[in-house]
Design a protein that fits this description.
By secondary structure, the chain is an alpha/beta fold. The chain has helices at about 15-25, 55-60, 80-100, 135-155, 175-180, 185-195, 220-225, 235, 240-245, 265-275, and strands at about 5-10, 30-35, 45-50, 70, 105-110, 160-165, 200-205. Helix 1 (about 15-25) crosses helix 6 (about 185-195), helix 2 crosses helix 3 (about 80-100) and helix 3 (about 80-100) packs parallel to helix 4 (about 135-155). It binds D-galactaro-1,5-lactone. The site of D-galactaro-1,5-lactone has 7 residues, from loops.
Length: about 280
Amino acid sequence: MSRPQRVLITGAAGGMATLLRPRLAQPGRVLRLLDIAEVPTRDDGAEIVRASITDPAAMEAACADVDVLLHLGGLSTEHGWAKILEANIHGAYVTLEAARRCGVRRAILASSNHAIGFVGTQDGEIDAAAFPRPDTNYGVSKVALEALGSLYADRYGMEVIAVRIGSCFERPRDARMLRTWLSPDDAARLVEACIAASAPGFRVIWGASANTRHWVSLAGARALGYVPQDDSERYAAGLAAPQRNLDPADPSLQRVGGAWCGPDWNTAEKEPERQS
Ligand code: 15L
């Protein structure tokens, strides 16, 4: 009998992993769910590991017998530099290094639109290869994650796909998310494509649904076999009127990172409060 495919998901207690867990469960696959926070036990055969992605020994133990790493761990929004450095940059390094030591062949990394948040939205579809222009410490950590992925692919032969995720929520919440939304079902389709792709080497791709109002090119994701089926447009009418009718010249729609590019996210000025 062939052994099951084992997929290690870091950040398993987080929002995106919670959406993905039931969607990625399938016969012949074991999900190993790792988080520093408690991950609920369910009747789905998942293996639960309580550990920090910054703990090398724990991560090496967690990577044993793993075929695919889906790295969603770390902080999912902006924080002071020390926290971002530890959780997102050092955590990514420890995770990839553990995966390498354990012979994990493939890693799918949760990068973010905030890696290129300062890119303008007016000049047509944004390619996945757009040069990094991070909008926050968090955005810098995602650039570092992509760079680590590149290193582990080129230096150690790991297959690494970094996905610049737009906004993965049950439904789009505002006018910007009509452009950046990745539906949970499409997120699962994208992960499945990343798992199934033949010899991808190192790639950076966009993670978004087939939104009528879109900013980013899905060519890279489609080349891996991703076929998105959702469109944020069906939620547009349900958004509150100010959001629905937002003038395209509104600052929140001028740059990919939206409000993260604005003064409220000027982290250096807010550093003392963000340290806590
Ligand atoms: C992200 O990278 C964040 O993790 C998420 O919380 C959202 O803010 C998302 O980007 C977004 O830009 O909508």
